[in-house]
Design goal:
The complex is a heterodimer of chains A (133) and B (80). With 133 residues, chain A is mainly beta. Chain A contains one helix and twelve strands; from the N terminus they run ββββββαββββββ. Helices cover 5% and strands 56% of the residues of chain A. Chain A is globular. Chain B is globular and about 40 Å long. Chain B has one domain. Classes of the chains: A mainly beta (133), B alpha+beta (80). At the A-B interface, strand 2, strand 4, strand 5 and helix 1 of A face helix 1, helix 2 and strand 4 of B.
């Protein structure tokens, strides 16, 4: 059972749980960074990332997801290989052109059921503990 | 502010993850809304993620580029 730890990213006196992970697209692996968001049902990446991965995001299954102000934004779901801390698995990744926040979001589906995710704000540390499957 | 087609290249000497943690605030203060790609000790900043990634891959073949959109200060106070 592996344990992966990341320090939060600092912006002046604010610290955010943004972590790097790898994702495989049509042009090989890329490393992307995302805000670990336990409130997000699934991982949502900006369509910019689809461009980097050379993936036509609009080919994915279309869905709608609700954002903070109650509005719905379109997302396109793909199943892609990802790697977090050396652990490789397939995960549901949604791409959106309407992600208003400036971070990609690493959400629950396929991530939080593979890892126990612990936010330690006092130590500004996030831990991914691999769970038994 | 960089124009759409401009790419700024900066040499970095440390591990990119460490560099990001040390200089994240500077990136946000100076380049918010733009995209940053790291490859083999070089940082590429611009507006087009795909173009930056391609540039990094051409210049540093065989290296996996790392990148993210540089958030704005207000993104740090969002309710996710």
């Amino acid at each position: 059972m592996r344990i992966i730890r990341f320090n939060y990213l600092p912006h002046h006196k604010t610290y955010v749980p943004v972590v790097p992970f790898f994702i495989k697209g049509k042009v090989g692996w890329k490393e992307v960074w995302a805000y670990v968001d336990s409130g997000a049902a699934y991982t949502i990446l900006s369509s910019d990332e689809a461009g980097r991965l050379d993936i036509d995001y609009s080919c994915g299954k279309k869905g709608m997801t609700m954002v903070g102000d109650g509005n719905l934004i379109p997302v396109f779901f793909h199943k892609l290989d990802i790697e977090i801390g050396g652990i490789l698995f397939r995960a549901t990744i949604a791409f959106s052109t309407n992600l208003g926040v400036g971070f990609n979001l690493l959400g629950r589906k396929d991530i939080f059921d593979r890892f126990e995710v612990v936010f330690n704000d006092p130590k500004r540390l996030i831990t991914f503990r691999e769970t038994k499957r | 502010m960089l124009k759409m087609d401009k790419i700024k290249q900066i040499k970095i000497k440390t591990d990119p993850h460490k560099w990001v943690r040390r200089h994240f605030s500077q990136l946000v203060d100076k380049y918010a809304g733009m995209y940053a790609i790291f490859a083999n000790g070089e940082l590429f900043i611009g507006k087009d993620a795909k173009k930056l990634d391609r540039e990094a891959s051409i210049k540093h073949p065989g290296i996996i580029p790392s990148g993210f959109r540089i958030p704005r200060s207000e993104d740090f106070n969002c309710a996710l």
